[in-house]
Amino acid sequence: MYTFFHLKQDILRFKNAGCEVGVVGKTHLGCDIPYLFIGEKSGTNLVVVASVHAREHITSLLVARQAWFYFTKKVNLFGGIYFVPMLNIDGVRLCHEGVDWIASKEQRDFLVETNGGYDFSLWKANANAVDINCNFDAEWGTGASNVTKPAPQGYIGTNPMSEKESVALAEFTKQINPDYVIAYHAKGEEIYWQFFQDEQKLNRDYRYARFVANYTGYKLVGQTQSAGGYKDWCVQKLGIPAITVEVGNDAYSHPYPYHQIDDIVAKNLLVPQKMLNTISKEKQNAKQVYEGGYQRG
To answer: I need a labelling partner for 129 at 20 to 30 A (CA). Which of 69, 221, 277, 288 fits?
Structure first.
């Protein structure tokens, strides 16, 4: 399994190898949320996020492998990629370690009571029992599976952006203003891309999502009854094309088995690079058309 300990080891390995390493913000329990940057900051940029849901920690290993491959193989990037391998660190630690690592007895008791026991292997929320992917300010609280009290999954929080992880990722995203966002989840081999876009953005976002679907072989899914997700917020509030990619075949149950990681990596390894370079080329072509038209005028 890919744990918080493995994340710390990998971040140190990247740093020692000369990769840019930074901090997005802090978790509910005060842990730094790291990011890695690979490529050039001028021009086109992407954000790739994993482990928004705790039990989907296999996505952290996927993103760590993507980043290491891009960094060590000097993959040709027309711009740069910000990788956030593990957003929900507290939740992932709960999945792997239970509550013993938490200093506060009150916090431990709250989590055990909310979870209904000491086995947190299926936990999705953060350490405040809020589902981060229901907490963003995008039709917040209107999802079909939303709940209004602390729970292992689906709890929307007291208000939009109530959680430190949500705020940290939102501020990080606004600061970067990326051209594309990929949020990795598990499971189902599906790609979610639609969230109340206008027609112009709908056509653009569908085209990009179709590109990823053709590469991965995953199924495209349009508008759903979910809300408050990171992808939803990027699309609706920032106007940024964004996708949620559900890796892993539905034949397997959670926690998702790690013997499937090679298949997941094979289908997704070059997705960020291909999207970055495709969008970068489109921007360059559009600039040339504009400048050419201006000169002719």
So the answer is: 221
